[in-house]
């Protein structure tokens, strides 16, 4: 896409956010998080993006103003004195802040904005332009659920890199190699293909660089990671993903590794084995493929997100695997999949309580997995685009148990 | 160290935090951030650590309770219903919360805790145990400034890995290789040595995986990164660190790359060149070494942190390089160095306004650098432990302009 087409892409995002403000009782958004700033401006420099419900947005940049000016698709202005932010907004948007009457409601991402900065910004808006700072994170997260063709293209680029890297690294996956050693090979291939180095997450205290490779008992370790298999990790201060445990013959090797290209992430999981899986684990792996096929049949516009989880849970139960589904014991994760885009943990979530229905343009990672303590984790994960005709897989690695 | 010695290490941390509470007007700390949770418990599982000013702390764990129980050096309890957190604390700490009179003041890390969670926790404490949630981040950051012998050992392990990785990757740094390609080689060496994958940062919107490699004009690009040289990056959504620009003969190659081992990070910078640097850049590099030597002479207990920056700025001015010091034009960073430990951006900061004096046990990265727009960045960075006798360098790579 040329710069003019990209400018239209970003103009459409702003327009969609503006349309959503009135129903949410918001008069403006003050975007503070680097990922949301990129989503709304096209640049990821330090500062704030003010989007009024009507009129032109402004990207107030602390640093680098030069770089934001070159990159952004919206108007850029130097932030100036943060202490005078309220006064600056009042001067730049007299119609928004000068109307009198009920307090102007400005939404920010209270799901990620640190409390100190929230309290400070709330005070600056109150005293400087009489506005109230409220939670606008749901509006932003909702708008980001539906991806444009451009965004789907970026996710596909990440999917291609992830698939190529796996193909190149698989010949090095041999008995006795440690999870860490093989992950270093896989990450090397990902990095050379432009992986940014991190798969950004929105949730507090959660972090992923490329995902996890876990074999046998190490994969089945419970973890703080909010997913079905966090992995053993390198120690108490790095308590997820790979460990220094050598990979052994006959144990399942869970390869839940994605990457981030141009800001967009892909998530995929494949299961491998050196030799042959024990019968009950091979059967559980086959069940994960069946659950994925069943989920695909429901990945249609109009299906409530929660239904995907409820059905998968019932199918796991039928297979006699409910106790192993998405973790074990009190550390079972209670979802089947999650939205993905600029962040790994986007909306919607395929979980109980998420009653929203699927819509064309949503992109979801679906990841049925089964955990066997002491033995390992088996499963599969694809990322799909929801289209009017059903799901289109964006992940490219062949779908099969990888036998080495 | 065996487990008993480690238990003493963690007991000493708790005791120091408890002693600091009364002077800060705090009755307890509620630790919420994963790094602070590790610092206070020895485990990094999801949950909260409650540390009363007097008595035994409790690590309330959401997941994984099993893993926290195996790892932590303090008492572990299941978190149970978050909605009843206040009631749980009141029941477990009747002397703290049942005394009546003035509201009990509980400190949390409001510098990192997201506003949504801050508002929710404040409400839960108010209604459940009549306590007030206030900012305790300064207390935690202050306590973490002074490192124990154990912590210094962890930082030294990271320093050794960083130095070894650089030695192994340097032979691959050749004319025409892109920054990204060579970074992939360097990161491969770091990862194999146990680099966790991320160098954790505390500041909102800031991220480092291993640092930056920047050659020529790409290194001198202004960036959102809160340091002297962020780098060009891979695009607007990854706007720092390496780019796809080939490295050329005769231009400065800034290698500002560290790693994280067992949770602790090291930061170091070396400058390399293929062939020979132009005279003015060679002279600026020599100035950066002189500034580092001058800073070393002041890295003594009792020196105010701000003095280090003020002196370095004066020395840069004497050398006719004030305009190039720590960045260029309106994107100059206004510090000379920073504390480092579990996070890259710890206290103290060597900057104006930071009037605290150096103390034995502090660990600081000192990084005089000079930026030449269109030409590159030159400089050097070591990490030092402050001892009663002066600074001890923890970084191990030879200090010289690396000529290839």
What does this structure look like?
Two copies of one chain form a homodimer. Chain A is of the alpha+beta class. Chain A has two domains: 3-143, Creatinase/prolidase N-terminal domain (Creatine Amidinohydrolase, Chain A, domain 1, 3-Layer(aba) Sandwich), CATH 3.40.350.10; 146-403, Creatinase/methionine aminopeptidase superfamily (Creatine Amidinohydrolase, Alpha-Beta Complex). In chain A, 36% of the residues lie in helices and 21% in strands. Chain A has helices spanning 3-21, 34-41, 65-71, 85-92, 94-97, 115-129, 137-145, 149-169, 179-192, 216-220, 279-298, 305-318, and strands at 28-31, 46-52, 58-63, 75-78, 104-108, 131-135, 211-215, 253-257, 259-261, 264-266, 269-273, 337-339, 346-350, 363-366, 369-372, 376-379, 382-387, 390-393, 402-403. Chain A has a six-stranded mixed beta sheet. The longest helix of chain A is centred in the middle third of the chain and has 21 residues, at 149-169. The radius of gyration of chain A is 23 Å and the shape is elongated. The model of chain A has no long low-confidence stretch (mean pLDDT 96). At the A-B interface, α3, α6 and α9 of A face α3, α6 and α9 of B. Chains A, B: Residues 154-387 form the Peptidase M24 domain. Chains A, B: This is Aminopeptidase P family protein. Chains A, B: It comes from Paenibacillus sabuli.
Task: Explain the layout of strands and helices.
Two copies of one chain form a homodimer.
Chain A: H1 3-21, E1 28-31, H2 34-41, E2 46-52, E3 58-63, H3 65-71, E4 75-78, H4 85-92, H5 94-97, E5 104-108, H6 115-129, E6 131-135, H7 137-145, H8 149-169, H9 179-192, E7 211-215, H10 216-220, E8 253-257, E9 259-261, E10 264-266, E11 269-273, H11 279-298, H12 305-318, E12 337-339, E13 346-350, E14 363-366, E15 369-372, E16 376-379, E17 382-387, E18 390-393, E19 402-403
Parallel strand pairs in A: 1-5, 3-4, 5-6, 11-19
Antiparallel strand pairs in A: 1-2, 2-3, 7-8, 8-11, 9-10, 12-13, 12-14, 14-17, 15-16, 17-18
Helix pairs in contact in A: 4-6, 8-9, 11-12
Pfam family, one (chains A, B): Peptidase_M24
Keywords (chains A, B): Aminopeptidase, Hydrolase, Protease
Domain Creatinase N-terminal (chains A, B): 13-145
